[in-house]
Design goal:
This protein is α+β, with helices and mostly antiparallel strands. It contains 5 helices and 5 strands, in the order αβαβααβαββ. Strands 1-4-5-2-3 form a 5-stranded mixed β-sheet.
């Protein structure tokens, strides 16, 4: 049986903004800053690892998109992101 990180790493895919926009509208999009492994973040969220997630939030390594980012991305519907679904969130990374 695969471990969760391997499973999540294999689930990371590319997505265009037009596919991600509905998730932004329901406030379930989380940006993972470059330098942080999106699968590591997914594991921490899936395992409810509050201390790690809280640390990343405090360091601004994971956050909700800003209005300016949303506006920019709405102008570029084909912008591509790495995306990982960890219910109820969609993690994205530029």
């Amino acid at each position: 049986m695969q471990d969760l990180k391997t499973e999540l790493a294999e689930a990371v895919s590319e997505a265009e903004w037009d596919w991600l926009a509905p998730h932004a509208r329901r406030d379930s999009l989380i940006i993972v800053e470059p330098g942080l492994d999106i699968a590591d973040v997914g594991v921490a969220i899936a395992n409810d690892d509050v201390s790690r997630v809280q640390h990343w939030i405090e360091e601004s390594l994971i956050h909700k998109p800003s209005p300016a980012q949303l506006s920019d991305w709405n102008l570029n519907q084909s912008k591509r992101f790495h995306a990982l679904i960890v219910q109820p969130y969609v993690l994205i990374q530029e």
